[in-house]
Amino acid sequence: MSCALLLLLMSLALAMGTGAAVEIQRPRGVPLSSEQFYEENKPFTCLDGSSTIPFDRINDDYCDCRDGSDEPGTAACPNGSFHCTNAGFRPAFIPSSRINDGICDCCDTTDEYNSGATCQNTCREMGRKERESLQIMAEITKEGFMLKQQLIHEAKRGQEDKQGKLTELQGSKKGLEEKVEALRTVKETAEDPEKEAKERHLKSWEEQKELIRMEKDKTRMAEAFLELDDDADGYVSVAELQSHLELDPDSDGSLTETETQVRCLSSSSTLFLPLKSREEFLSHYQSLICDPEFIWICRNLEKEIGFDFGPSAEFAYLYSQCYELSTSEYIYRLCPFNRVSQKPKFGGSETNLGLWGQWAGPEDSLYSVMKYDHGQGCWQGPNRSTTVKLTCGKETVVTSTSEPSRCEYLMEFTTPAVCQEPASLDEVLQGHTEL
Amino acid sequence: FNSMCVCALRRQRALSLLSQDENGVVLSLGADSQRLIVSAKPFRLDIMEGREVLLSLNSRGLLAFEHLRILEDGMWEETFKSHTDSKPNGPSSISLDFSLPGVENVYGIPEHADSLKLKTTDGGDPYRLFNLDVFQYEVFNPMALYGAIPVMLSHSAQRTMGIFWLNAAETWVDISSNTAGKTVFGQMLDYVQGSSETPQTDVRWISESGIIDVFIMLGPTPTDVFSQYASLTGTQAFPPLSALAYHQCRWNYNDQEDVAAVDQGFDDHDIPYDFIWLDIEHTDGKRYFTWDPHKFPQPKDMLQGLLDKRRKMVTIVDPHIKVDSSYKIHNEIRSKGFYVKSKDGGDYEGWCWPGNSGYPDFTNPEMRAWWASMFAYDQYEGSMENMYTWNDMNEPSVFNGPEVTMHKDALHGNWENRDLHNLYGFYVQRATAEGLIERSGGVERPFVLARAFFAGSQRYGAVWTGDNAAEWDHLKISIPMCLSLGLVGVSFCGADVGGFFKSPSTELLVRWYQTGAYQPFFRAHAHLDTPRREPWLFGPENTALIREAVRQRYALLPYWYQLFYHAHHSGQPVMRPLWVEYPQDTATFSMDDQFLLGRDLLVHPVTEEGARGLTAYLPGKGEVWFDVHTFQKHNGAQNLYIPVTISSIPVFQRGGSIIPRKARVRRSSSCMEHDPYTLFVALSPKRFAQGELYIDDGHTFNFDKHKQFIHRRLFFANNALSSRNLAPGSQFTTFSWIEKIVILGASKPSKATLKTPDGKESLLEFDFDASMSVLTLRKPGVNAGVDWTVVLQ
Prior knowledge:
- The complex is a heterodimer.
- By secondary structure, chain A is of the alpha+beta class.
- Chain A has three domains: about 25-120, no CATH class; about 140-245 and about 275-300, no CATH class; about 315-415, Mannose-6-phosphate receptor binding domain (Cation-dependent Mannose-6-phosphate Receptor, Chain A, Distorted Sandwich), CATH 2.70.130.
- Chain A contains six helices and twelve strands.
- In chain A, the strands form three sheets. An eight-stranded mixed sheet of chain A has the order 5-6-7-8-9-10-12-11.
- The longest helix of chain A is centred in the middle third of the chain and has 106 residues, at about 125-230.
- Chain B is an alpha+beta fold.
- Chains A and B meet through strand 11 of A and loops of B.
- Chain A: One of its GO terms (biological process) is N-glycan processing.
């Protein structure tokens, strides 16, 4: 069978809407857009310009052009492609190797014209189904996109709230820090004269002691010291002094610590708080600033604000949420921006399938895929990881999970946050019915 | 001795007595002045041709026959780790030595991950033949692997011979040589000084039980030895054409959706494939002949989906059967008493994939008949005619058995496993292949892949080299492993492309596809724990490289099919060491990094990491070879340095040959059935070439039963290329025609005339490439099944 099918004249009813039939003729497998290159009964130049052949060599089931352009309607060229018009559905190119291979590839059956395969023209049916599903998708997209706007709005507000809260917290932290700082300064400035006064006092006290000692030296030296040095440590402490009422200035019978200070510092006007309460106050503020809870809140707010929640923060609502899917064996749990895990339904511990890594979609839709990695290690294998594919949906839900490769999980997740602005349905449908 | 067979000729000839004395007899073996000298004291046999000794038996006096004993309470028991071998007949063994004067090269006795030319075993372990499920085997090692074929070939520039030691018990083979230790200088000195010592190889076979039952194949040519061996064990099963195409396997394709997605992936990336495989996880709890109800709820829908694309599936059916009273297969085997028994008489049980398992006694013909009946479409639920079978673990593998196999004192009827261990896998594959034949009413050719095998397994399907690893050494060793199998009858051999264990680098994966595309059984496979590695997962460039390798395979399928037809017909190996075709060229004797497909294609795949070039040996003084990609001509008997890139697959066509191809590569081989042929005519320096074209329906036994095939001789001589019928008694109609004829090494004609049987003559257009001397005849258009001649003037 030498398959000398030269040229198929295609009769196509154009402009279906108007009912007017225009007849066009072009070799089998040639798209309308290339028709001008195949001029009837004129020598044909291969589309790559590599050679020129008589017109009857087009679709003669022998490959003459290196680029396969002389056999658009046969399987003769290894690199050729065949155009199916698919009226009622969507036109398509298929590799030449699928022409007459016994498998129906074009819904208009034009690829199987000589194989004996019985193909049904399914274009209209497919077109109808596609329109239906496109319509459904369009509705979902539309609603999803509206939800997304809401999400964006909420995210913006949430973000502002959080920023505000953080600013506030940071502000109050700053205020506290300033207070602490002020107190510290006060304390330090207070302490300087204190120190001086204390030193002065000690000095005079020593002198006084010396005087007393001198006075009582000869008679009571040993006794006196022993008397003062209650704990016999060889020094005379404040406490030791306090126990000696002969030193009591107000003669109330007790020598208080404040008195010792006042006594020491009575000349200084900067003193406005007892030393002890100032220390307490300072540490109170300091503890406020260093409070783990406070730090945690601040850090989380900073972390959350710093997350990449998408171009308009539309994914922010997923933060600190978790979504579950129950399969026959496991419950899968996705906590976006945090972790993915798997728990056996009938007992057994939870397995970490990955921690939030990064957005991992292709360049043109980065935010369509999430990657979670560094999960629990596999025996003789890698650490578990999960790829989450996001598709547009009205609801936020995990729709499926699988483990296509050992310890590499795949999760399908619908969310309005990935819904793109819908093209008008007419546009969508029009794009698919071109001849 | 039970018997000894000397197979020198296809036709049996009676031995005739030449002379006799009190110490022996001299018998004539018929032609070629061959004599057998039997001497009694000391016992030895010598086979002579003229004054030359071809082979001597027991010349070293190592004949041994340890007789069976009556068991004395536990006296002979042997323990290995926690296992005990009760040895009810006491220790037993048999042994015999063979001396091969003038022989320096011996081959065969697969399966070992070792060089093609067998090494001497002095000071090391002998080559061991004992079918075992070896975890992560090592290369360049004489250790036993999954299969055992106790056949050794000897070869010298003068003669090729074979020894078939028919014994299925554990067997060891020792090889020593009087020249092995000599340096090149020492050998040269011998030559110059005319040293009287001729090279000699001595071989000793030892088996644990059974009888001495040996077949000697006297050749003298490699082709003769192949025919002689085929007359003993049969020839390669002729596989369905699609089984020679590409197979996509993985442990495991998870569910029906996964299968559909992988299938679609091949179409999306325009890579052809014919078979997708399902490993053990597809079953319901490792109960073979069943499907996991969640993952594969509608197997027929899945199979129909593949059938719609003219593709096929293989499911795994292993011989270990889950002991489970709710499992039909188990209940039937148990109730029929078909299980192997333990030494105590109960059903033998061991651990394997399903947990506790029984092992059907495949040595029992009734069991095999029952097993075969389980493949009937109404028995194996969810099966369809495009579903074929894989028998793994058929050594058999017993996870908790000694050396991960069956206890030697387990009983197959009256026989201990000890006596027939290496035959178990053979019978598993046989019963399965018979089942696939029966389910089609004897019409369709089966396809069964098995891991364990024995002499004769070639009659039932394909084998592969088991659980290899994603390492360059494992890629390299795939060549000698399959060459060794081909020499002893098993042509349908392959290694897991990519390597089973571990994960290959992209370069290794690409190189493995390129190598596998030119080996008989071409299947990618991967361990459960490895990352996915379908061909399109490594970026567009690597996808393109893999696509090209697979496409080269598909284009060459007519030639592969023809080679398998010959393997089936006459026992000639498909994949051959160079010495088989160039038996006098000593340079080829230990070559195992390149090989021949049939006579006419020489393949030297790139198996070195980061290779920039390689040296291929093109044999045949005075011959020429044509690079199949560039058509460049090279002279024979030279080491040719070839610069290589990542896309290179060095392949050469022998000048003097004609190879048919189908240039229209489609998504499966079935889709290419009616496509036209392109003939590649590579002219010899004397401007001669010949080849063949074999065509049949590709999948039934009608070629055999009803002589429905086309077999034509194509020859080019005196500037004319003709097609003549080689099988006048046959009948078949093909739609295929001759699309193009490419003549390599041609000169430019003034005209080319096509003459057809109806007496018509027509001029063919042609194109001549003067730089490469390539003449392309445009569209002869003649049907591939008729006589025709093209005359160049």
